[in-house]
Amino acid sequence: MSAADLMRRLQAAMPAGTQPKFKTADELMAWQREQGRIDSERIIEQNRVARLQNVLGRSGIQELHQSCTFQNYNAELPAQRNALEKSKAYAARFGSGFGGFIFSGGCGTGKNHLAAAIGNVLLSAGKSVLVVTIPDLMMRFRETYQEGANTSEA
């Protein structure tokens, strides 16, 4: 059945006084194409968000630090400004002949913030990221020695 036949049948079945949204089969087809485009864009965006959440979840970046950027890092001390510049340089040159990045320093100096900022830059560029804190690493080691652990020390 053609679209024109369908339109004629729909118009014949409509109650008196009802105005159809579309007057021609071409208008109906154009509307369906537009709705298909809108639905496709929505699904593509949902898939993009789901992939990002999946990657972010596997990255080790804690929820508290997921919005950390270089721009919202508060570098008050010279050592913090130095760490910020080195972090930016690492992110900018990632993959050019060097491996991981380790921060050390006292509590509250912004190590997790900068690690997450680097991770967020790399994730947005499609890279794989794993952020691990020493307490998390030590807990993982400790778990390997517990009876019935899924992971062993080997």
From TrEMBL:
- Coiled coil spans: none
* Limits of the IstB-like ATP-binding domain: 100-152
Alphabetical list of InterPro entries matching this protein: IstB_ATP-bd, P-loop_NTPase
Mention one GO biological process in which this protein takes part, according to its record.
Answer: DNA replication
Give the Gene Ontology MF terms in alphabetical order: ATP binding
Q: What is this protein called?
A: DNA replication protein DnaC
